[in-house]
Structures are given as structure tokens and as C-alpha cells.
Task: inverse folding
């Protein structure tokens, strides 16, 4: 890598421009309470520019329900009808404030073709998404909420969730259309929803595309070579949305992205019968619910927007998991980026993680990285993934540079700018290098970005001085690729692992 590009990489990681932050990893177990609620537990958020000819789109995606053992039964991992899944965008002045401009809500509805059977998901071999052999059916609706217009809602469209990859029941996910074989690359086109307004959506099970040796990282940072992919062989559930940039006011700006999950509010009677100071209203609600449950009354009215309670939040991975102390982890999950400066700045300025890295990896020789980290505070506060929309489309990962049928795009590097993978911005030139910006994370985040190895180098570096002092840790965590190839078409995340034929490290 040239000296100029390497210097730019250091400055970018410092957050001088977009302010995206270094992270070490994401084990998907960020806070105590949400770990107990897997269908609402967020894994990773992705955001990057995709370009088809002259048309550019912002791709955003949210993974939930981590550590899915493929092929489990009789009940399957699915999206939860009682969870509101949302991907939020911050535009214009809202970006610096951590305030939401637009929200995209995914809501699910589950039904069964035949409830009088133990065959919960499959009545036979599934030939097409939603056919007569797919017993468990999940449909979803995506709604756009514009907070600039007093929360005005517009339904963008609806779609069908494809079945999980069981094996014999779902042969077309797998090599040779054979349920005995491992999962193959590709995307079930019938599961992609194309809507008249230019949006494209997907919701369904996929392979967990985050790769890292989480076991070693959280085992006193006892890294090993080679590392073991702790998410290898597991699936998750993914929601993805392709948004035309014309719907976001064009490409002459930077957008911030984060996601939340919320559950319906549950109210509990206290000893005096009062709930939130309104015992009469809540007693009436409780009686109505009881009448419905015993079959002598109508179903209760659906929850309104005000009746949802946020239970998880995700922007850049690891901020809550690796920087925020146990005492405040659940608070982070419930709060908004608007309050990050007030509540969580202290954790970025004096990160315990940096102290652990210094003590356990560096023998205490680098105390300067442990305190006064105003650079990290500038990165994580507010905690949003930032994407420069003015660049050409991001280079995409496939199955690696040498894959015979699905190679990475030319110029793609899992290390983003640390590997020389840069794009040209047409709205800014922060370092006097012709507008060069990172090709991947922390300019957005692509599937395949090795955020662990990028971040280890960033945390070891001193980003408070210009030029910054760059210190690298070449071995990284010893995991340099996902266990399955990514797709270079929407929704990008790899095919779900076959329940009948898969491996864990």
C-alpha cells in the first residue's frame, strides 16, 4: 500500500471525516437482557452503496436471531410477529444529532396451512417459495415512516419469507439440488420482492456472515493462529432493503444508519391495582383480554405505535458489547443515539477494552491508548454507521479472490482501505488526496468486511495526532474469510447452512 493511502486509512479510522468507529467484534450477545430474547436480538447492521448502471441505491440490512443451529426441529427459528424490526436513517442535520429522519419497519404475520399436524414447517419437498409443501408461512410488510412529516407512514410493499434450509425438504438451497449436500451459493429469486416504487426487499434465513474468533477474543484476548470462526456453521434471519437514492434526496450527502427491535408493552398490576396511574383503564383492558382468551369476547385492538418498547439497538458493532459497562448495557439497548453524548461518552473516552489490549497483548507498553480517547468519542458518539452516498457502488465480496465461479470484485479487500480498497467521493476531499475514501467499512459496511482486523489496527494506533501514529497487529484474529461465499447480488448474505450437512469449527 502506498504511504499516502496508508496515511489516509489511519485518518479515516480516526473519524475525522465520517466518524465511523473501530470495533473489535460482534458476538451477537451485546447486553444481558436481550441475550435472553433471541428473536429480537440484533446481530449486525450493514449499509453500502450499490450501483446498477447509472442507478444507485443504498442497501441496508439487519440480522437478528443469532446462533441458529441449522435443521433444528420440530419448531424452527423464525421472525417474531410480536417484534417490530426497524432500520433507521439519519439525513442532513439529523446525522450529527443522532436523530432519526426515516424509519423502515418490518412487521411479520405467521400462519399455518395445516395446524393439525406435527409437521410444523414442511409437508413435503418445497419446490417454490410459499407452495403447498411449505406449512409455516410468514408474510411481511415494510412501512416507511417519515419523521419530518410527523411520522407519516407509507406502506412500501409486502413479501413472503422463504423456508429455512432443512435439507431433504429444501433441496434447492444445496449443491446439485440435493438435500444431502452442503449449501451452495446463490439467492432464491422467488424470495426477492420487487416493488413498483423502486424498492427491493428480502426477509429470511441466511448464513451468519460475520466471521471472527470470538472465543479467543473473549478468552482474555488469547488469540491463536489460525483462528476459528465462532459463527461458522450457524444461521440467522436477515432483513434487507434496497432504497433508491432518489428517495433520499440524491447522492450529495452522507447518511447514518442504525437499527432497533421493539416489543409490545406489557403492563403489570401493582398491589394497589394501579398501572401507570390509570387503574380503571388497565383493569378494563385486563378484563377484555380475559374475555377474549376464554372465547366470549372480541380480540383486543392491535397495539399502537406508542405501545412498542425498544429492547435492542445496533449501529457499529461492539460499542455496547465491548465499551459500555455492564451497568449500562441494557440502558444502551433501550436508548436512542440522541442521548449517546450524555450517557455513553465516558466509555469511549476511557475504554476498558483499550486497557485490556494494552495489558494482555502489549505487556503494558502502550498506556497512551487507554485514556483521553477523544478520537473514539468522536467516532462512536452518536453510534451510527455513516455512508458517503456520492461514491460509485461498493466493491463486493464473493467467495474470495481466487474463487472459480464467484470471485470477489476486482479491487475488493476485506481490510477495506487498509488493503488499498478505496472509492472516490464527489462531495468532499478531507485529506487532499483527490477525494479518496474507504471502499468499505468504516465508510458503511459491506458483507465480507473484516471489521475485526481493521479495528485491532485502529485501536492500537494513536489517532489523536496528525499525522496519526499507526501500529499494526498483522496476524489479526486469524480468521480471514467467511465459511460460505457471499453473493454479489441482493441480498448478498450467503445461503443458509444445510441442516443435514454443515460444520462448526
Result:
Amino acid at each position: 500500500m502506498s504511504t499516502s493511502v496508508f496515511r489516509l486509512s489511519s485518518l479515516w479510522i480516526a473519524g475525522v471525516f465520517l466518524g465511523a468507529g473501530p470495533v473489535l467484534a460482534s458476538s451477537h450477545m451485546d447486553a444481558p437482557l436481550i441475550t435472553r430474547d433471541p428473536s429480537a436480538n440484533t446481530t449486525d447492521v450493514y449499509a453500502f452503496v450499490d450501483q446498477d448502471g447509472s442507478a444507485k441505491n443504498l442497501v441496508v440490512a439487519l440480522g437478528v436471531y443469532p446462533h441458529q443451529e441449522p435443521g433444528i426441529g420440530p419448531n424452527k427459528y423464525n421472525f417474531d410477529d410480536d417484534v417490530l424490526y426497524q432500520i433507521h436513517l439519519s439525513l442532513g442535520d439529523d446525522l450529527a444529532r443522532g436523530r432519526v429522519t426515516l424509519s423502515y419497519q418490518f412487521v411479520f404475520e405467521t400462519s399455518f396451512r395445516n395446524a393439525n399436524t406435527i409437521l410444523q414447517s414442511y409437508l413435503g419437498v418445497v419446490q417454490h417459495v410459499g407452495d403447498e409443501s411449505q406449512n409455516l408461512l410468514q408474510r411481511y410488510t415494510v412501512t416507511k415512516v417519515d419523521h419530518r412529516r410527523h411520522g407519516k407512514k407509507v406502506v412500501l410493499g409486502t413479501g413472503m419469507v422463504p423456508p429455512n434450509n432443512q435439507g431433504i425438504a429444501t433441496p434447492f438451497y444445496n449443491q446439485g439440488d440435493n438435500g444431502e449436500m452442503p449449501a451452495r451459493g446463490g439467492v432464491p429469486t422467488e424470495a426477492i420482492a420487487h416493488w413498483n416504487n423502486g424498492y427491493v426487499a428480502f426477509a429470511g434465513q441466511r448464513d451468519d456472515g460475520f466471521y471472527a474468533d470470538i472465543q479467543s477474543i473473549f478468552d482474555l484476548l488469547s488469540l491463536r493462529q489460525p483462528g476459528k470462526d465462532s459463527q461458522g456453521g450457524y444461521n440467522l434471519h436477515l432483513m434487507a432493503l434496497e432504497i433508491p437514492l432518489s428517495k433520499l434526496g440524491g447522492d450529495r450527502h452522507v447518511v447514518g444508519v442504525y437499527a432497533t427491535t421493539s416489543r409490545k408493552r406489557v403492563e403489570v398490576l401493582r398491589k394497589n391495582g394501579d398501572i401507570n396511574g390509570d387503574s380503571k383503564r388497565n383493569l378494563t383492558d385486563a378484563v377484555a383480554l380475559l374475555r377474549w382468551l376464554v372465547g366470549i369476547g372480541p380480540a383486543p385492538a392491535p397495539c399502537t405505535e406508542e405501545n412498542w418498547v425498544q429492547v435492542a439497538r445496533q449501529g457499529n458493532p461492539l460499542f455496547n458489547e465491548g465499551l459500555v459497562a455492564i451497568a449500562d448495557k441494557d440502558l444502551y439497548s433501550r436508548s436512542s443515539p440522541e442521548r449517546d453524548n450524555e450517557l455513553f461518552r465516558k466509555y469511549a473516552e476511557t475504554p476498558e477494552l483499550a486497557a485490556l489490549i494494552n495489558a494482555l497483548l502489549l505487556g503494558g507498553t502502550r498506556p497512551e491508548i487507554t485514556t483521553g480517547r477523544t478520537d473514539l468519542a468522536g467516532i462512536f458518539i452518536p453510534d451510527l454507521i455513516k455512508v458517503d452516498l456520492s461514491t460509485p457502488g461498493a466493491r463486493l465480496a464473493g467467495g474470495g479472490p481466487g474463487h472459480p465461479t464467484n470471485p470477489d470484485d476486482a479491487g475488493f479487500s476485506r481490510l477495506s482501505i487498509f488493503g488499498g480498497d478505496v472509492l472516490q467521493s464527489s462531495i468532499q476531499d478531507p485529506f487532499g488526496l483527490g477525494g479518496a475514501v474507504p471502499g468499505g467499512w468504516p465508510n458503511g459496511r459491506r458483507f465480507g468486511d473484516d471489521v475485526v482486523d481493521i479495528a485491532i489496527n485502529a485501536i492500537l494506533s494513536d489517532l489523536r495526532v496528525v499525522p496519526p501514529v499507526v501500529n499494526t497487529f498483522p496476524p489479526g484474529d486469524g480468521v480471514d474469510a467467511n465459511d460460505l461465499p457471499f453473493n454479489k447480488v441482493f441480498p448478498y448474505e450467503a445461503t443458509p447452512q444445510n441442516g443435514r450437512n454443515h460444520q462448526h469449527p
The radius of gyration is 23 Å. The mean pLDDT is 86. The CA atoms of residues 232 and 483 lie 6 Å apart.
